[in-house]
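INTERNAL AUDIT FORM
Audit reference: QA-55
Scope: verify that the stored structure record matches its stored sequence.
Auditor: D.O.
Record contents follow.
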Amino acid sequence: MKHNLIGGAWRPGAALPNINPSDTGDIIGDYACASPEDVTMAIEAAQAAFPAWAMLDPQSRADMLERIAGEILARREELAGLLAREEGKVLREAMGEVTRAGNIFRFFAGECLRQSGELLPSVRPGVQVEITREPLGVVTLITPWNFPMAIPAWKIAPALAFGNCVVFKPAELVPGCAWELADIIRRAGVPAGVFNLVLGKGAQLSDALMGPGVHAVSFTGSAGVGQTILRKAGERGIKVQLEMGGKNGLVVLDDADLDLAVQVALDGSFFSTGQRCTASSRLIVQEGIHDRFIARLSEAMRALTVGDARDPATTIGPVVDQRQLDVDLNYIAIAQAEGARLIVGGARLTREHNGFYLAPTLFADTVSPMRINQEEVFGPVASVIRVRDYDEALEICNDVDVGLCAGICTQSLKHAAHFRRHADVGMVMVNLPTAGVDYHVPFGGRKKSSFGPREQGRYAAEFFTTVKTAYVRAG
């Protein structure tokens, strides 16, 4: 059984089996569940380790992060196989995610040496003002199951680079990737207590994860849990960063390159089994291209191969577990009850091994107020909304209470430029899938999608550090 990592030592706990969603008879292994007391021990270990880690020279921290990056990239095939097996992401996408995780650690190894401040003259003669950034202290990082390597990497790497100590709680569905990452970090020479791994169910550990000694919490997951964390963090004076999903619109205008638009929609809506917060779940299509777009997208969807994530021939893997499959099927039923027309898919599939397989699903004849167009499904389900013109498309694209990402397919520079400025989201894609972002630039949304500073790239310093202003008079 694989254990929790607390204070540099592996600590056992009650066993939780890790099940392959492509083959529910395949048990990947047993992983130890932490208790609230274990979480408290992890926080105390991080507190004890913080003073020395915060003052460690930046080259030493950079070297450790570079070793982490090197091992992830050297083992990318092995780690991608594990990711595909426990999360259901197809091998090609799993390999891309692991590579991204390694590159994130490599980027932040460099950031250790690129930290800077400001030296300004005071309004008072003979006084200088120095503005610097310092680490926060102990940070709790809570990550979801859909990107079990990349999202932990983009939280852990900057936290360590900027001198914080970490208590890391991954989603209970993907303990394997988290355990391997923790072991790599430990063997890279990160001192005991600087990084701690606590496995288990969030509902049982959430209160302890924001206990005394925690200075900040970064969470990616559902809106309901995020709002609870925000309330508790406010009560306890804890800095908070939340990423809570999206209901992303892809606008397809009459002048779009049809082949490109279909490929952009196919990728954004259905790859990774639609289990991405940046997925294109709403396809907002102008009436002149509407029928041709649906016909071509339906044809492309029928050519997709749904199967075992580890099979190189598979293009769409399983849904992550039975609970998520039930959610997806429920939304399909809701859409039909609301009057949406089912074009493709809509049913559970059977394969050689028992798994959580769902046919990629497309609805037409939907309108913006429908629940299928307002609530995040988080599965391979997309709906088409017909619009008259660009102005209506933009209005409908913004007609949701989350604003993570939006895309547009057009050959019009005028419409592309206007959309970039007026889409009420944190990220805009032009002739690209809404899902798929670089690791060295900021990630985050508007409205109810996000709360707090952006993640990734140099903007990560906004969350993982605090600003200090010092006034100095010489002599």
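Auditor finding: record pair retrieved intact. The radius of gyration is 23 Å.
Action required: none
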